[in-house]
Amino acid sequence: MEKIIVGKNIRKIFGQSDEKVNALNGVDVEISKGEFVAVMGSSGSGKSTLLFALSGMDSISGGSVKFCGGELSELRENELADIRRTKMGFVFQQPTMLKNLNLLDNIVLPALQIKKNAKGVIKTANTLMEKTGIIGLEQRATTEVSGGQLQRAGICRALINSPKILFADEPTGALNSKSAEEIMGLLVEINKEGTAIMLVTHDAKVAARADRVLFTKDGEIVSDLSLSKFDDKNIEARAEKVAMQMAAIGI
Amino acid sequence: MFSKLIKNDIKKSKLITLTITIFILVAAMLTSLAVMLLVNLLGSIDNMLIQAKTPHFLQMHMGDFDMEQLQNFADTHNNVEAFQVLEFLNIDGAEIIIADNSLAWSIQDNGFSTQSKDFDFLLDLNSEIINPADGEIYVPVYYMREGAAKLGDTVTIRDVTFTIAGFTRDSLMNAGIAGSKRFIVSENDYEKIRDFGIMEYLIEFRFMNDYPVSAFESEYIEAGLPANGTPAINYGLVRTMNAITDGIMIAVLVLIGLLVIAVTFLCIRFTLLAKVEEDYREIGVLKAIGLRVSHIKKLYMAKYSAIAGVACVLGFVISLFIQEPFMENIRIYMGKSDNSLLGVLFGFVGSAAIFMIVMLYVSGVLRRFRKISAAQAIRLGTPEEKSKPTRGLQLSRNRLFSSNVFLGIKDVLSKKKLYATMFMVLVITSFIINVPQNIHNTVSDKSFISYLGIGQCDMRIDTNQTQTENLLEKTAEITDTLKNDSSISAYTVLICKMFETIADDDSVGRLRVEIGDHTVFPITYSKGREPRTAAEIALSVLYADDLGKDVGDTVTLTVDGENKNLTVSGIYSDVTNGGRTSKAVFETDPSEILWSSIPIAFNDSSLTATKALQYKETFPFSRVSSVEELIGQTFGSTIEAVETASYASIAVTIMLSALITLLFMKMLIIKDRYSIAILKSLGFTGSDIRRQYLTRTVIVLIVGVVIGTVLANTAGELVGVALVSSFGASSFNFVVNPFFSYLFSPLLIALCVYIAALIGICDIRQLKISEHIKEV
Q1: ipTM value of the model?
Q2: Nearest chain B alpha carbon to A14
């Protein structure tokens, strides 16, 4: 299977001299095309740091991260921005929207930045909004919709340029259980259509939808749990398997 | 605890702290300086008036008079402490040669005197009463400042030569606008030159206490006492004339100080609100654990009280050091002030007042703590964004601008209140750069004299009784020559004569009337228009006030023995002849005229200087002056002070616009760090985002500078009027230099703002997505 991301011996150090913190301590990780990888770990274990390192949103202190064969640390700021815009999508815990733009404008923003055909972009946005169940809310302000609707809009925005991989940092963390279920359903669907997903979560039930779960502890990947392809019917059993693994490694 | 908090906070925001400190420091320094100068100016003037024993009432007179009648008048007034008549030997400037250069250029009436016996003493630069030895001369300090005379130079009048032994401080005639200057020589020397000029008399009175001068003046006129020279001058007018030049400078300092304070407030407001926003969650926590709002306020006020305290003390100390050059003019013209310690004390009070005002303002801004809900602050971490998407402007419908420019425009439109700070700063800087420049343009422009009672012309030929005894013949001689000069496009003859007026209560007064065609060289009237018929008269503001008349009222004059009712057609400002003049067109017996004035316009104005020289030689008995000379010598030092202020204002503008923009952009980036992180995560590059911020800057810049420039050139007139009215002009229009106002100043501001914005937003590149995207 074609590898989208290959990370070798990734190190990330925060602070200086006496106050140094090794957030990532020589991590090796690979993500293949179309794969759904969840990252779990307790607070401060380095899971979000790993997501930022693999997506090139944060520099690394040592090691290497290759995205589609290219070394991210060797890229200039503009080249990194190009990759983020065209080949990656991001969904965060809190809906990261520009408050002075309406929903539709927020969704089309990364596409119109590269001067794509505006009509085509709006058509794609409408399709995505329909798929995520927020069609009709195009003109709403970000303050005029619910958290769940805002997160769906965030997913639409992340997908507007048809990325190879979607990075999601606790996308259901701020949602109620119903909305969280719906969002996870959407992510699974997106993954089935071929977009790789790297998802950071605390929730075993959320991680249970992934093909593979990486467990982080003290800046290292301490376990790599492979799951079979997700099927709606076996969610409880998968979640239990994840929870058992968590307990086994003391998370 | 406070000192640790303050230190940490200052460490975290060095630039912001430094900027605010500088602004408060400048405001405190200007205030302290203005207060010290004012106290010293008033002190120096009072000191000089006391040491010189300045008369409370002065009337100049030419020709014979009855000394006994004057003495009787003085005797019958119990409040008159002393009375004297001094001689003022008026010698033509062309005949006074100082170090090989004549004073022909001077438009002043140059007179020679000996030291007075009782009062109105002429003082040297040490404020000692001068007693010149034979062969010595003391020259008015005005000529020293003009660079026309220095110690040791010779002064020659015909065959008599003097050596300059010093300079005189003349409490009555010091100021450039006084119009006359006194030289002082020994009594022996005075006798040698007695026949070289025409004698004028200074009839002077000193009162025992605060006797009302206006009442004395009317009694003097009613008694028919000699009064055909320059109109009566009183103590108040003397003080004002001495204070004008430095007073204007103080007023400009105060004006700049006020604007700096306004900008400081904007700055404090912006930084403080940004800080509150940054600390929103912490404020919520402090409230939640039960700290009172007043306690939380104290934490924030501690930093500002430290900054303001240091800035105000430094501002005060700096003002002590830089006051010297500002004080120089006061010291030379008026001598030392007894108030210097008092000045320092008041200067300190001024600085302390700035401290208090700043702290009150900070406290006022922090009142919003009350509105912060602890629960909401802890939950959200930031105040709810008030900006809403502007419905009409949508990125998905935008076909005109690039996304970066669009986002820049959109941001300004949806956060108008935020950008109002920057906008206000730009409006204020446009004011600061344009208003002093416009005032300078206005007072140095040729047309300015039309606001001062003199028609706009290229040259004037003035002839009066002190210069010739055959005034009418000489005036006719001049007009005969002018008729044949083809380079002249227009001229008119105005004669001045004294008439008796009968007030509404039948009391008799005297009115100086300039008679002639006032339509040829019209002046600017603050009310009404020039007199056009023989039944009309226009009054100067001071005369109108004295007589209690307005446009349309009637003034009764005794003309050639008959009472004549004249309707007031207009009222104008006048700084000539003590501000008391009037204009009419009626016929009268031309004998007993006081002087004649002939304003002249040339076909080609550039000929004026050559023509002035030519006519000075042709008519040595008259005073020929070009309008530039008239303005330069009357208001020279004041124009210079305003010019200095206008250059200072350019420096202030550069500093203000650059510093505030830098500060604003830095604060904006701190405030927007989360949005910037979002944009970066979406694939916007640092230069894309910088372009958005530059778009915002350019929009606010264009709107601010355009509105500021228009306001400065229109509403700025009101500020200008307040300042220039102290020259004696009650109403005027700004003379705007279009190159400066509409090209140079906007471009200068634009350049400063643009460069500062570029520097201010360079941090965008360093802003890390991972550090800010999680902060919600």
Answers
A1: 0.86
A2: B771
